[in-house]
């Protein structure tokens, strides 16, 4: 005789002499269940090892509400609510759509793409992501998904604040004669805001002076000493 016990129960869900299979129904999606078979003779019963099974997932059911605040030019602080009925192992993916540096770029080239800032199984806690670029517009949303389906949150948009320029390349210096050079430069790879102008500095020995302020991209520097080392930045 066989007895099958389900989920630690004390009353067998199957008590049969010949039947060797059992089908359980009407369980919630992605629920955990345990089974143990007792084999019995006229002398008594002996339990076998416990087996564990999960029902299959179905798409999650509910909503996700996102709140997000830009706290500095590169960082967003986000928080999102729980999905009421996960119906499986649910992951919360914080997605960020906007401009990012191209992966592997050494010249700080940028591109528009959607970046996954977080993939976690919790909700209701604050999360900070510090991969934004200053002075750019971004959209934030949460994709709450299991293996079968997903739920999208509301979308929050915002523009990051300004910061100092980044990706400033060394200037090009062309020697014209023994007392003059032409210095030219390029705009920064990441302006990070509205550029107010450029400042060119000249250094010889321990003395550093500003030789240009303005919006141009080149400067003719004259009245230099022959055969003298000058540095420009």
UniProtKB/TrEMBL annotation:
Top-level taxon of the source organism: Eukaryota
Record PANTHER family: CYTOKINE RECEPTOR (PTHR46957)
Native source organism of the sequence: Nematostella vectensis (Starlet sea anemone)
Alphabetical list of SUPFAM superfamilies matching this protein: Fibronectin type III
Protein name (record): Usherin
Gene3D superfamilies reported for this sequence: Immunoglobulins
CDD domains for this protein: FN3 (cd00063)
Positions of the Fibronectin type-III domain: 167-233
Gene Ontology cellular component list: membrane
């Amino acid at each position: 005789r066989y007895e099958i016990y389900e989920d630690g129960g004390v009353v067998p869900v199957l008590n049969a002499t010949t039947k060797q299979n059992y089908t359980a129904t009407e369980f919630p999606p992605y629920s955990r269940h345990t089974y143990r078979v007792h084999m019995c003779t006229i002398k008594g019963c002996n339990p076998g090892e416990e087996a564990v099974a999960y029902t299959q997932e179905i798409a999650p059911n509910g909503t996700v509400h996102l709140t997000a605040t830009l706290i500095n030019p590169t960082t967003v602080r986000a928080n999102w609510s729980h999905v009421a009925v996960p119906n499986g192992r649910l992951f919360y993916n914080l997605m960020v759509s906007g401009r990012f540096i191209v992966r592997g770029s050494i010249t700080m080239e940028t591109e528009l793409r959607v970046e996954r800032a977080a993939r976690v199984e919790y909700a209701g806690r604050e999360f900070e992501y510090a991969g934004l670029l200053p002075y750019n517009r971004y959209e934030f949303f949460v994709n709450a998904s299991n293996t079968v389906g997903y739920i999208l949150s509301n979308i929050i948009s915002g523009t990051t604040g300004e910061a100092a320029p980044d990706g400033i390349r060394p200037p090009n210096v062309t020697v014209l004669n023994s007392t003059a050079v032409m210095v030219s430069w390029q705009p920064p790879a990441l302006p990070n805001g509205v550029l107010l102008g450029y400042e060119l500095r000249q250094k010889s020995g321990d003395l550093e002076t500003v030789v240009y302020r303005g919006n141009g991209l080149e400067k003719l520097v004259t009245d230099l000493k022959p055969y003298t080392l000058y540095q420009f930045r």
